[in-house]
Amino acid sequence: NQKIFSLMEKYKEVFFVLKLNIDSVPFTLDPNPALTSDLMDGRSGFLTMCRDNHWEFSSRRQAYYSTKAMLFVVHQQMFNFIEFTCDRCRAVLCKGYNCESCKDYDLCYICHIRFGHKHTMNEKTFITFDLSASVTTGSSKIPLLPSE
């Protein structure tokens, strides 16, 4: 440890030196599931996506926009497998209503209240999030964490 600190002191004019572990702050458990994304698979994928989308981090304003755009891409990649959308407004459905008579006719809560449907609609949960590492869609489970 002492050798590392002496090297850091020696080269502090040449390199940025940051201490990442602060003992006074307790470790925080994140309740959100870990997501996999093409954007974060490696350095080249990240840099290519930043270049293709003109994302820059040279100013606070650009970094703010680029970060929001990246979060949107990660969110979209997470939900690209979803086939459950409202047939009226095209919103992605986690919970909604399913028609008993019509084949594959689903409505979100707002469209069900606002427009209704001529047949009986049953309340249905289309997607449930299992925080133990997978997303359940209908009958299949999609892992959120990479398998080991």
Automatic annotation (TrEMBL):
<dbReference type="GO" id="GO:0003713">
    <property type="term" value="F:transcription coactivator activity"/>
</dbReference>
<keyword id="KW-0539">Nucleus</keyword>
<dbReference type="Pfam" id="PF00569">
    <property type="entry name" value="ZZ"/>
</dbReference>
<dbReference type="GO" id="GO:0004402">
    <property type="term" value="F:histone acetyltransferase activity"/>
</dbReference>
<dbReference type="GO" id="GO:0005634">
    <property type="term" value="C:nucleus"/>
</dbReference>
<keyword id="KW-0808">Transferase</keyword>
<keyword id="KW-0479">Metal-binding</keyword>
<dbReference type="GO" id="GO:0008270">
    <property type="term" value="F:zinc ion binding"/>
</dbReference>
<keyword id="KW-0862">Zinc</keyword>
<feature type="domain" description="CBP/p300-type HAT">
    <location>
        <begin position="1"/>
        <end position="79"/>
    </location>
</feature>
<keyword id="KW-0805">Transcription regulation</keyword>
<dbReference type="GO" id="GO:0031490">
    <property type="term" value="F:chromatin DNA binding"/>
</dbReference>
<dbReference type="InterPro" id="IPR043145">
    <property type="entry name" value="Znf_ZZ_sf"/>
</dbReference>
<dbReference type="GO" id="GO:0000123">
    <property type="term" value="C:histone acetyltransferase complex"/>
</dbReference>
<dbReference type="InterPro" id="IPR031162">
    <property type="entry name" value="CBP_P300_HAT"/>
</dbReference>
<dbReference type="GO" id="GO:0005667">
    <property type="term" value="C:transcription regulator complex"/>
</dbReference>
<keyword id="KW-0804">Transcription</keyword>
<dbReference type="InterPro" id="IPR000433">
    <property type="entry name" value="Znf_ZZ"/>
</dbReference>
<keyword id="KW-0156">Chromatin regulator</keyword>
<keyword id="KW-0863">Zinc-finger</keyword>
<protein>
    <recommendedName>
        <fullName>histone acetyltransferase</fullName>
        <ecNumber>2.3.1.48</ecNumber>
    </recommendedName>
</protein>
<dbReference type="InterPro" id="IPR013178">
    <property type="entry name" value="Histone_AcTrfase_Rtt109/CBP"/>
</dbReference>
<dbReference type="GO" id="GO:0045944">
    <property type="term" value="P:positive regulation of transcription by RNA polymerase II"/>
</dbReference>
